[in-house]
Hints:
The protein is of the alpha/beta class. The protein is 30% helix and 28% strand. The chain is built from 14 helices and 26 strands. It has helices at 22-31, 49-61, 86-89, 99-106, 125-133, 164-174, 190-202, 233-245, 263-270, 318-325, 344-351, 381-393, 404-407, 413-419, and strands at 2-7, 13-16, 35-37, 39-43, 64-68, 71-75, 83-84, 108-112, 137-141, 144-148, 156-158, 180-184, 205-207, 213-217, 222-223, 226-228, 249-255, 272-276, 289-295, 305-307, 331-336, 355-359, 362-366, 375-377, 397-401, 423-428. It has a four-stranded mixed sheet, with helices on one face. A four-stranded mixed sheet has the order 2-17-19-18. Helix 1 (22-31) runs parallel beside helix 2 (49-61), helix 1 packs parallel to helix 7 and helix 6 runs parallel beside helix 7. It is globular, with a radius of gyration of 21 Å. The mean pLDDT is 96. The structure holds ligand EPZ. Ligand EPZ is lined by residues 22-23, 26, 94, 120, 122-127, 161, 163-166, 315-316, 338-339, 381-382, 409. Residues 22-23, 26, 94, 120, 122-127, 161, 163-166, 315-316, 338-339, 381-382, 409 line the site of ligand EPZ.
Amino acid sequence: MESIVVKGGRKISGEVVIGGAKNSALPLIAATLLAENGKSCLENIPNLRDINTIIRLLEGMGAEINRSDSSLTVTTTAVENCQAPYELVKTMRASILVLGPLLARFGKARVSLPGGCAIGARPVNLHIRGLEQMGAEIEVEHGYIIGRSKRLKGADISFDVTTVTGTENLMMAAVLADGTTHLRNAAREPEIIDLAVFLRKMGARITGEGTHTIVINGVKKLNGADYQVMPDRIEAGTFMIAAGISDGDIIIKNAPLAALGSLVSKLHEIGLAVEPLTEFKEDELLSGIPVRIKRQTSGLHSLDVKTMPYPGFPTDMQAQIMTLMALAQGTSVISETIFENRFMHVFELQRMGADIEVEGRTAVVRGVEKLSGAPVMASDLRASAGLILAGLAADGETVMSRVYHLDRGYSGFEKKLNALGADIKRINE
Ligand code: EPZ
């Protein structure tokens, strides 16, 4: 098993380039299943375990996929096996994203239920209910979602909980449906916009992405298209906190600043300077610009954070900002409103000397002078990134096990940090 060893106390500096967004690349790759003719060429695809998984999933269905560096060419003309087996889905929940496209184009699908994960039960009832509203016949048996539909029909769908992949799945189902679909209380994440722009390039008719209501007028068929994935806003936010926690000074060459929602204002409140180095246009939501990050003064100020759907504070940045709060002056309160079990990194941070108390979905973080390096265990993707950030600032060495969590969402994370002056090694134990 691999572990990551972080030697603390080094201030990071220099320039870093952010990779393509995992949570955009995954639905975009699933959307290529909708193309009846032609191939799709996707650029800026990150090199991650989850990407490898969805590629294997589509190849198992009969898609032809060529990959070189960060570009992926996908042809799905010959797809006929409309299945997503448990063996693959259990390693990556986002495999559920093939359900909508398979039903839309082929009228049939057999997709393993994703099941829960460390951070929560993560049901997919809203995905299923929306597809049934569009006329799909869905049965759930032996751990599989089995769907059939002649041609999906446009429907008026309201989500009672805002769901990112639920919105994406139903967007992809609706683009080939007969008639108009309204998705109300839709997720507004930038990755939803990335998907809508790609689907329009394939020939889809979509408006309202990025707002609470998305309207899709179904068409008869879609073709392959070329597209460049947006930079990963969560990786960018993670590096911003790396600079803050190590009292460093870095430039992110391509930060999707406009897509970071309320994260940047929170970082300013904490005491970081996040400075765009070129003209910053609000409408360039999906493109990256060079941004410099360092502390405004030597101290970090405590503050309260509540995770919310976009454009609120992203739950995928909760573990990372908690490590910063652990070293801030004063007491911070962090409320995790999206997932019911997303505080497992707290117990590991406590082993490093953090003073944190968890009450249900609220964590009370009392700042301490210093963290101390310790053996810790990653529990999920973003927790693993947070523990490495804590190791950057801690006295001594932090050894993090279960590194596979990190590799699901960060490509060459320790290499990029070492290029900025950190001292991190990956070892086999
Ligand atoms: C997406 O997960 C992201 N994953 C997650 O990122 C992210 O944390 C999450 O959105 C929230 O922003 C991808 O995009 C691949 P949800 P998703 O459906 O779509 C409830 C990472 O670290 N819900 O928006 O699975 C659900 O239980 C990952 O990159 C239902 O009740 O999340 C949760 O409480 C972790 N029924 C809330 O909605 C449903 O049918 C939001 O979940 C669907 C969701």
